[in-house]
Amino acid sequence: MDERVLDRPVSDFLPFSLPDIGEEEIGEVVDTLRSNWLTTGPKTRRFEEDLGAFIGGGVEAIAVNSATAGLHLALEAVGVGPGDEVITTPYTFPATAEVVRYLGADPVFVDIDPGTMNMDPTGVEAAVTEHTKAILPVHFGGLACDMEAILGIARRHGLKVIEDAAHALPTLYRGRMVGSLESDATVFSFYATKTITTGEGGMIVTKDARVADRCRLMRLHGISRDSFDRYTSRKASWYYEVVAPGYKYNMTDLAASLGIHQLRKAYIFQARRDELAARYDEAFEGLPLTRPSSAPTGDTHAWHLYVVRLQDSAEVSRDRFIERMAEKGIGCSVHFIPLHLHPYWRDRYGLKPEDFPNALLAYQRTVSLPIYTRMRREDQERVIDAVRGILA
Questions:
Q1: Which of these three, 229, 264, 299, is where a domain ends?
Q2: What separation in angstroms does the CA of 152 have from each of 120, 146, 159, 257, 282?
Q3: Per the domain annotation, does 357 fall within a domain?
Q4: Nearest to 89 by CA among 319, 318, 300, 337
Q5: DSSP-H helix ranges across 133-189
Q6: Residues paired with residue 369 on neighbouring β-strands, in sequence order
Q7: What's the domain count of the chain?
Q8: Which among 133, 160, 194, 207 is annotated as catalytic?
């Protein structure tokens, strides 16, 4: 791919991430503002239809105001409730496990594979109990989990599967788009740092019409008809019924206006991220760090994150490395602080750091480097030079 000419002022500080918003998105937002319909309406429906077609496999798409909301709705729709257990990974953002607690259920953590940093299916099998209701895998960094193994475990034990695909658009697993597999539902994130963005927002996709209907109902107060239908019908349509104690999780048309055009660029964005990751891989060969796992042949890595792990032979600690990068004006991050190290999860479930040794070791060595589609070649060279200068 040719280097992109980008209208962005030069800054002494190179951020960890920047959104890639074009004139198409701006024009669609202006059109929405002029339409006088700002909340959930025709643009949201259009975005849902477009994303459903993009994923394929006959899925239905339900737009929400965050992936957190989407995970909550999906788990509620498959019947997770008090006394249930949901198996997931500690190597994730807090939202993945928090939504389980919203429903009065308990997350059960299993360690990660030290190579992919995704949940280890052998740990999943060992964690199943009579109280297990669902499995909640997280596609870390944009690389798909071993879904064949996870879905096989679910089938053997009669469990539901909800995929946390906040990092995974567009990710292919064995030639199929994540979101079109045999899970009960998959949830994507469109937060500002994600591969496509609506600022804040998310999407549930499912092949199960009952799950889709329940998510649509519960995303807006459990009201039997949504606002757009009631306020735009030519018939007297003021009447509605609350049939369940729902939530306020709907996406606005303003956000969907961004998503419509971001989605059209998803493959372009992925190709750009793939190019950036390949350049990092080549530049870091021979340094005392472990580069992230690539997708198997025939699959696609979304490259939401480019995560390196410092090796024992590195003459600088992870924390000092990040400090040195900041001194050079480069923003880095850490994905993630494992959940079992946080006071809430640690104290509630009596967890110790060593309970999940692979997650602990990854955290202690992990640095997420800048990777975003607006990076110029000179931006990436600046990152490469800084990393090599600190570690070489």
A1: 264
A2: 13, 10, 10, 38, 36
A3: yes
A4: 337
A5: 147-157
A6: 306
A7: 2
A8: 194
Q: Domain containing 362: what range?
A: 266-391
Tokens in use for 178?
């994540």
CA distances, 308 to each of 94, 182, 186, 288, 297 (Å) = 21, 31, 27, 10, 21
Give me the residue label for tokens 């060593």: 354
Q: Are residues 32 and 83 in the same domain?
A: yes
Same domain for 249 and 362:
no
Active site residue 265: no
Q: Which two tokens stand for residue 148?
A: 């064949």
**DSSP string for 311-362:** -TT-SS-HHHHHHHHHHTTB--B-S---GGGSHHHHHHHT--GGGSHHHHHH
Rounded to an integer, what distance in angstroms lies between the CA atom of residue 207 and that of residue 149?
A: 20
Whole-angstrom Cα Rg for the chain: 21
Mean pLDDT by 10 residues, the chain (392 residues): 42 92 98 96 97 98 98 98 98 98 98 98 98 99 98 98 98 98 98 98 98 97 74 67 96 98 98 98 98 97 98 97 98 98 98 98 98 98 98 92
Q: Give the Cα separation of 120 and 114 in Å (integer).
A: 9
